[in-house]
Amino acid sequence: MATDDLFFSSLTELNAMLTSRKISAVELTKAFAARLESLGPKYNALALPLTKNALKLAKDVDGDIKRERFRGPLQGIPYGAKDLLSYAKFPTTWGAKPYANQVFDYTATALAKLEKTGALLIGKLAMVELAGGGGYRIAGASMFGPGKTPWNPDHWSGGSSSGSGSAVAAGLVPFALGSETSGSILTPAAFCGVTGLRPTYGLVSRHGAMALSWTMDKIGPLCRSAEDCGLVLQTISGGDKLDPASAGKSFYYTPQYTRSLKELRIGYSPTDFSDWADPAARPAFEKALAVLKETGVTLVETKLPDFPYSALTGTIINTEGASVFEPLVKSGEIDQLADPKQAAGFRAGLQIPAKDYLRAMRIRSLVQTEFRRVLYDLDALVSPTRPTVAPPISEPLDKFRQQSDRPTGMAGLIPAGNLVGIPAISFPCGFVDGLPIALQIAGSVFSENTLIALAKEFQSRTDWHRRRPPNISA
Amino acid sequence: MKLSRLKLSRRQMIGTALLAAAAPAQSQEPNPDWLTVSADQNKTNAEALEKITLPQATEPAVIFKP
């Protein structure tokens, strides 16, 4: 019988169980799929169970393992994917009622790559409708209801990869895929107490993913640990002719070749920890910063280049998103969205003058130049992922967003990092009133191995990422 | 109380009906005009971007591939 330990095992541990045939892929898939179907609705995390299809594939994987045809560390491991990624012949709703019956005849490249190595998709996971592109103001902006963090279901899971965050946190899947345009992997990772990696723009193909902002969308993993993120990223990265923005590069998780942490200079802003962070969270954030320092890195005081990051991301995402969904707006079906603010946001986006969009994109070039300068002197930047714990689902999100827009220190690292396309990793670093808080580390383009190494070293010195939410039972 | 004992005049009944119809609107918070809110936010964003000095030769952060 499956125990809780199984559901909270790392990918390496699960792989060892499978290759040594202590458990079969079919048994593992059955156990996780039953748990996902049973507990997923409790957190509004499940969009579509794919158990039958996964079990069919799991039988083939068991045959391969029996014949010692090993295809990599994810072979036979079940997982979930944000319902923004198409899986051929199954519904892909993008979390939005107007697309409830949408079915594609092709599979997203990231899912196809996982399937090729024997990973088993057991369910599509819930998300904020249309990835929140219209500017949502309520946690319930989804056809699946408000995402709930397993640490306290009265609080939000974060978005827009809401189901991906809560499903990993509750041990419903060993890992999940999410997507980020500006904060949609890092925020649910922080609020659900899991590790999330936003890759460099173009490293993971977006073919088969819902487009919101062509110049900012990224696909990435949410996992139990930094090491797990490395294993998943290695599988889903790589050039793809079907994605015009593909960087044509692969990622190989090579912890053995990572630079010594003692050589690394990490930029931070003391005001993030003393002023920006919620007062109740400051002691935990400061302890986490001290742990990071103990790893041997050199912490250097710095701050972000002075730009209106939220205004930039707002203008770019609103304009591109409104163009993507113009047919939905014109048909009037946009009004079927759960959050009327979202529908209004897409409508208003169609009225943004070309001069404003182009100005934002020209300023974005300046931001890129400035970031290259900052990251020439420093190897990475660290700040709280979010300054507060997850807000209650009953509260409008405006208040929480206003707090995160304060232009001090590195408060704008999420929009800034997304504008310049650099990678970032978020990992849990403590708890406040039973809810997780997290640090994010961002670095130069294609520096994922360094970010993973830093987070992995932090996780070797702490156990925040191994904590399990209370009161979970199937 | 039986309805027959209310003994309301036609004018009183119309007044009561009008009050009853108006009551729900009074008890709810005014519904914001989200389109105006969103348009105002876009305008605020544009004003923030106007404050940045742009060198004439700065090209947008997009690459055209022929």
Strand-helix topology:
The complex is a heterodimer of chains A (474) and B (66).
Chain A: H1 4-7, H2 11-19, H3 25-39, E1 46-49, H4 51-66, E2 78-82, H5 109-116, E3 120-125, H6 162-169, E4 176-180, H7 186-192, E5 195-198, E6 218-223, H8 226-236, E7 265-268, H9 270-276, H10 282-294, E8 298-301, H11 309-324, H12 326-331, H13 340-349, H14 354-377, E9 380-384, H15 398-404, H16 413-420, E10 424-432, E11 435-443, H17 448-461
Chain B: H1 10-27, H2 34-50
Notes on the structure:
The complex is a heterodimer of chains A (about 475) and B (about 70). With about 475 residues, chain A is of the alpha/beta class. Helices cover about 40% and strands about 15% of the residues of chain A. Chain A is built from 17 helices and 11 strands. Chain A is globular and about 55 Å long. Chain A starts with a helix and ends in a 13-residue tail after the last helix. Chain B has about 70 residues and is mainly α. Chain B is about 55% helix and about 0% strand. Chain B contains 2 helices and no strands. The longest helix of chain B has 18 residues, at about 10-25. Classes of the chains: A alpha/beta (about 475), B mainly alpha (about 70). The interface of A and B includes residues 315, 340, 348, 352 and 366 of A.
Outline:
Chain A is an alpha/beta fold. Helices cover 39% and strands 13% of the residues of chain A. The mean pLDDT of chain A is 96.
Please give the order of strands in the largest beta sheet of chain A: 1-3-2-4-6-5-10-11-9-7-8
Number of strands of chain A: 11
User: How is the biggest beta sheet of chain A arranged?
Assistant: 11 strands, mixed
Structural class of the secondary elements of chain B? mainly alpha
Task: Give the terminus-to-terminus CA distance of chain A.
Answer: 13 Å
The H/E string of chain A reads HHHEHEHEHEHEEHEHHEHHHHEHHEEH
